[in-house]
Amino acid sequence: MPRLAICRVIEGDGKPYCIETAAIARPLWAKVWLRRLNRIAIISRYQRPMAVHRLSGLDMLRGIAAIVVAFNHAADLAGVTSLVSRSYLAVDFFFLLSGFVIAATFEARMSAMGVVRFLQARWFRLLPMIAIGVAISAAIYLASGANPYLTFACAAVAMAFLPMPNGIFYMNNPMWSVHFEVVANAAHTLILRRISAAGLALIAMACLATLILMHGWQDLDVGQGDNYLLGIPRVLLSYSMGILLWRINAAKARGPAWLAFVLLPLAILIASQLGWADYIVVLLLNPIILLCGLGFDEDSSYRPLASFIGAWSFPLYALHWPVQDALLRSGQSWLAAFAWSIGVSLAIGLLLDQRVRAASLAPFGTRLALLRRRS
Q1: Which of 114, 195, 334, 344 is most exposed by smallest CB count within 10 Å?
Q2: What is the distance between the alpha carbons of residues 320 and 73, in angstroms, rounded to a whole number?
Q3: pTM of the predicted structure, to 2 decimals
């Protein structure tokens, strides 16, 4: 029986597809087209731009960045100034990392997945931990006597990864970055994947100029409230740079991984003390950190630890704010709140994240689609 190569579209953790075969009946006139489809599928299977096993160093960096953010937010919620008060620069590293990884693992197959299905898959990928964080925040507000109708309305808006009309994410403050990352993913699918490296560089420069002209050069703390709209050039600046690093094959310039693991928190610490180095971190140090992270030795005995920290990073990022808020309201110190957010996110990540994510992505693993050649 003739066989046709088909593609099962799967989204999650850098494994966007697999190749299978299925026996089908075919008329003789379809012979040429079936051969072409088989050839395209086979080529796509063996020309994945970057293998997943080369990204463990980036997993480790993702976890380090999430820890820095959680540490500063615990202090900020308690009204204490921490040594890493500009931890929001870790979010710009997330944007850079997202652009690089999405370009490396998805870009060549975005046309096959389609815009709607790609964004649906991203939403389902992020939803489980976001939903738990929103539920914790809703419980806190209801327990403090908040209007239940308003609370549930805010929760519904948050579940759609959207801000309130004033640009604030009341249910879980760190969701602003998830919101803008999804916006960047949409722009990537619709526009950025079609733009040349030179065009991406121009976009990054235009975003940089917009931020400096509209906000100034002292800091990059924009994307919520009155400066909500400036979140768009902010995310596109780092996200476009991430895609650009992949397009120009900058990964060949990788450095020592240990330098990345030290430089990421150190850069945020120094920028927090200087009070003016945000653009240096975003434009210079973050790309260096990413490229050094690619130099992680995949044969190292630390690889399982790096992968584990990477898997835990999003539960920590999505849950730390409501957990810390609840504990600080109960009279705990900010250091205790930080420690508890580490423990709670770790437990939920181990017990629920992978299982719930797999269940939510199941529909994307059973629907078959023909893989088309990317022009």
Answers
A1: 114
A2: 8
A3: 0.81
d(CA 342, CA 118): 31
Q: Which of 149-153, 186-190, 353-357 has the lowest mean pLDDT?
A: 353-357
Distance from C-alpha of 191 to C-alpha of 232, rounded to nearest angstrom = 15
Beta strands in the chain (DSSP E): 3-9, 17-23, 368-369
CA distances from 303 to 4, 71, 259, 296 (A): 38, 24, 16, 8
- Give burial (CB, 10 Å; 0-12/13-18/19+) of 359: exposed
Cα–Cα nearest to 221, from 85, 314, 317, 98: 85
Joined together, the tokens standing for residue 173 give 């403050």
What CA–CA distance (Å, rounded) separates 93 from 322? 23
Compute the radius of gyration of the chain from its Cα atoms.
Answer: 22
Q: What's the CA gap between 360 and 362, in Å, rounded? A: 6
Structure confidence by residue, pLDDT tens digits, 103-131: 998 888 887 777 888 888 888 888 889 99
Q: Which residues contact 181 (CB under 8 A, 6 or more apart)?
A: 94, 95, 98, 235, 239
Q: What tokens were used for 82?
A: 């921490």
